[in-house]
């Protein structure tokens, strides 16, 4: 009896160790990284909802700086994330900016393939620089594009003022480059330098006439601003797309179709509205992400 009990005990112990060693191995698991601003929180959260709907166990690694999350992706500490094509091309890869979104995407895809990082599902979310004005003033002055702005400044020198942070005011791919390409120039007294977070507030308060902005900023909605059309395509595209470790993609190729559902529906206007719901209205990222996915029939309620 004791002999049988001994072998039964060994058998039970073996089964327990086997179960422990296999814990976490069964099922589909993936980690999703994200940067430390609202748009990235939303993209990460929506992706997590979609993956969970398809049976994945998802670990989210958000609130990371841009270079930190990129390093985590390269070191396979993060499996996938939504990255911006312009950030990858210019900041991570040290390449010259490109104006064509598709060519930019293909370039980063080719360069990152050498690092075993796969790019897919480029969306129409373009988190690039923009020049913004108050809707009513832009309409009054007949300014819809940066070319219109250039013509007005040249015909009315010294009249319009612009709010900019120091970086945009001085970098070649910022205001100096815009002025050179479009053939106009704000006088030194017409440029009001301030923190980036204050530029659109100054515009809304009528302290300036033009402001630097980002295409998907929630304040564009909040302040009822208009972004001027970059008709000569100066600002490089910063399209949000999925970047994923090659081995993870090969293991779970269905992720392409899952994340395509998101990429196919999102654009800068929608992203701006979603950012607004979080940043201005104070709703939680999770609620905004979930509700939008349900409204667009991407997940069940």
From TrEMBL:
Gene3D superfamilies: Osmoprotection protein (prox), domain 2, Periplasmic binding protein-like II. InterPro entries: ABC_Gly_betaine_transp_sub-bd. Keywords: Signal. It holds the Pfam family OpuAC. Residues 28-293 form the ABC-type glycine betaine transport system substrate-binding domain. GO terms for cellular component: ATP-binding cassette (ABC) transporter complex. The keyword Magnesium does not apply. GO terms for molecular function: transmembrane transporter activity. This is Osmoprotectant transport system substrate-binding protein. It comes from Rossellomorea aquimaris. The lineage of its organism: Bacteria, Bacillati, Bacillota, Bacilli, Bacillales.
